[in-house]
């Protein structure tokens, strides 16, 4: 089936890890040090995702195309104490070759459904300032710039920006 988004299962850990590493390498090439990107290890990420899917109350979803995981998203309670937001889209990544087919919007819809199940009514997301593609995506969804802050990834000091929706009903899919 083309375009299916579903809750992630423990057996999806390896596929999520594969997508995680591949998308970081394509998305952040030129933004993060090449040695850092080269050091990303799908086996290590598989163990992290296995733990997440087994132990944490996060909502994790996968996008499939022809029975292959091509993207994932996760979300839950806001993690950093950001005033005015109780929900957070933690991560969303879609393989470059599967982008532009609606997977991102459907993954956001799934996370929003999970946030609603938790009784949350708003959402924030953080993104690297230099990731213009992702920023455009959040702006098209109606996200409003909240603020920026420094972040260190590997040996790189970067800026990340946040976008927020004061109401989940305000998200434009």
What would you note in describing this structure?
By secondary structure, the chain is an alpha+beta fold. It is 35% helix and 33% strand. The protein is built from five helices and seven strands. The chain has helices at residues 13-28, 34-39, 42-55, 103-117, 132-140, and strands at residues 2-7, 59-65, 68-77, 87-94, 123-128, 144-153, 156-165. Strands 1-2-3-4-5-7-6 form a seven-stranded mixed beta sheet, sandwiched between helices. A hairpin with a 2-residue loop joins strand 2 (59-65) and strand 3. It is globular, with a radius of gyration of 15 Å. The model has no long low-confidence stretch (mean pLDDT 95).
Average pLDDT taken over every residue: 95
Give the second-level CATH assignment, the architecture of the domain at 2-121: 3-Layer(aba) Sandwich
Low-pLDDT runs: none
Write down the overall geometry.
globular
Secondary-structure-derived class? alpha+beta
The secondary-structure element order is: EHHHEEEHEHEE
Number of helices: 5
Q: Share of helix among residues?
A: 25-40%
Could you tell me how far the N terminus lies from the C terminus, measured between alpha carbons in angstroms?
Answer: 21 Å
Task: Tell me the number of strands.
Answer: 7
Query: Spatial order of the strands in the main sheet?
Result: 1-2-3-4-5-7-6
The largest sheet, given as strand count, sense and whether it forms a barrel, is:
7 strands, mixed
The CATH H-level superfamily of the domain at 2-121 is: Gcn5-related N-acetyltransferase (GNAT)
Strand composition percent: 25-35%
Q: Tell me the name of the CATH class of the domain at 2-121.
A: Alpha Beta
Briefly note the CATH topology name of the domain at 2-121: Aminopeptidase
- Which assembly state applies to the chains in this document? single chain
* Overall radius of gyration: 15 Å
């Amino acid at each position: 089936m083309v375009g299916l988004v579903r809750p992630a299962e423990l057996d999806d850990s390896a596929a999520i890890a594969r997508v995680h590493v591949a998308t970081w390498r394509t998305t952040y090439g030129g933004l993060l040090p090449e040695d850092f990107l080269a050091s990303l290890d799908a086996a290590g990420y598989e163990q992290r995702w296995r733990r997440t899917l087994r132990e944490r109350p996060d909502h994790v979803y996968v996008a499939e195309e022809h029975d292959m995981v091509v993207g994932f998203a996760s979300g839950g309670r806001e993690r950093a104490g950001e005033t005015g937001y109780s929900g957070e889209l933690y991560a969303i990544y879609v393989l470059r070759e599967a982008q532009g087919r609606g997977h991102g919007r459907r993954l956001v819809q799934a996370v929003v459904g999970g946030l609603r199940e938790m009784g949350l009514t708003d959402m924030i997301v953080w993104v690297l300032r230099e990731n213009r593609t992702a920023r455009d995506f959040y702006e098209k969804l109606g996200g409003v710039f909240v603020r920026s802050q420094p972040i260190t990834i590997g040996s790189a000091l970067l800026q990340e920006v946040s976008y927020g929706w004061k109401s989940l009903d305000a998200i434009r899919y």
